[in-house]
Design a protein that fits this description.
about 300 residues, alpha+beta, Phosphorylase Kinase, domain 1, Aminoglycoside 3'-phosphotransferase, Chain: A, domain 2, five-stranded antiparallel beta sheet, three-stranded antiparallel beta sheet, 9 helices, 10 strands, about 15% strand, globular
């Protein structure tokens, strides 16, 4: 989904900042260690970041974050990004973009976490707090967040096509069973806030503990089961159980969470863009999801 005609680099960021925010003209610009895929992120001085959507689909998220993050932040137990300014299209770059306050921390990896069970509980507490915020007028599932928070049926064809493509590489029958169980576990609750992309790259660790949650581009109000995918993409064993117990997911919500994790892993492995390491990682996710279903079915 990245537009190859647009080069998003420090030179572009430098020009955008200098022309639209001259008060920050003297601050150095440099790429962050992990700049992301949907958006490209750069340091601006020591206390700010510049975040630019890499494609039109992601540009829909800029206004949403600018509007809602300041309202969500005071009600959450951990820091989230603080928007400082919004820039407009210029210098050949066609979309709006954002400047945020820098948040200390490194992306979550097992070696950086002191106690994974404690980490899982802290994340669950954050998501429970997020769900408890008044959802009135919040963004409903749509193109801005790729239908996170909506029914899994929107990805039914895509998931089944991936299962068929991977028939000789995975247990296709088991994958179909898990997917159909997720579809059958329909949601009928009241809409609540969800993050939409709870992944290790969006969780910051400092001193061995969860320190912040970033990238609310796919956030919205609706079914929060999409936020459970981290249970299979990052947690396992005791930490997965600690996460489930703390977030108090019932069987149907857990089943839909499996569905979200399975769909993303399936299309990644079946696609042509994933490198071998990523494909193997997603194969492991598929195995974990299928095994978890067998355990609880």
């Amino acid at each position: 989904m990245h537009n190859p005609k647009i080069t998003i680099d420090t030179g572009l960021v430098r020009r955008l900042v200098d022309t639209q925010f001259p008060r920050w003209r003297g601050l150095p610009v440099s790429p962050v260690a992990f700049g992301g895929w949907d958006n490209r992120t750069f340091h601006l001085g020591d206390e700010m970041t510049v975040r630019l959507p890499s494609a039109a689909a992601y540009s829909l998220q800029v206004e949403k974050e600018q509007r809602w993050l300041p309202k969500l932040a005071p009600l959450l137990p951990l820091p989230i990004p603080t928007p400082l300014a919004v820039g407009g299209p210029a210098e050949g770059y066609p979309w709006h973009w954002s400047i945020y306050r820098w948040i200390e921390g490194e992306t979550a990896k097992s070696g950086r976490i002191a106690d994974l069970n404690v980490f899982a509980v802290s994340l669950a507490d954050f998501l429970v707090a997020l769900r408890g915020i008044d959802p009135t007028d919040g963004p409903a599932p749509d193109e801005h967040n790729f239908h996170r928070g909506g029914p899994l049926t929107v990805y039914d064809g895509e998931a089944r096509q991936a299962i068929a493509a991977l028939e000789r590489r995975i247990d296709a029958q088991a994958a179909t069973t898990v997917w159909e169980a997720a579809l059958a576990a329909t949601w009928s609750g009241s809409p609540v806030w969800f993050h939409g992309d709870v992944a290790s790259g969006n969780l910051l660790v400092e001193d061995g503990r969860l320190n912040a949650v970033i990238d609310f581009g796919t956030s919205g109000v609706g079914d929060p089961s999409c936020d459970l995918a981290i249970a299979w993409t990052f947690f396992g064993g005791e930490s997965r159980e600690a996460f489930r117990a703390r977030i108090a997911a019932d069987d149907a919500t857990w089943a839909r969470g499996r569905g979200w994790a399975l769909w993303k892993a399936l299309i990644t492995v079946a696609g042509h863009d994933a490198n071998q390491a990523e494909a193997e990682r997603q194969r492991h996710v598929i195995d974990e999801v299928l095994a978890d279903h067998c355990r609880w079915a």
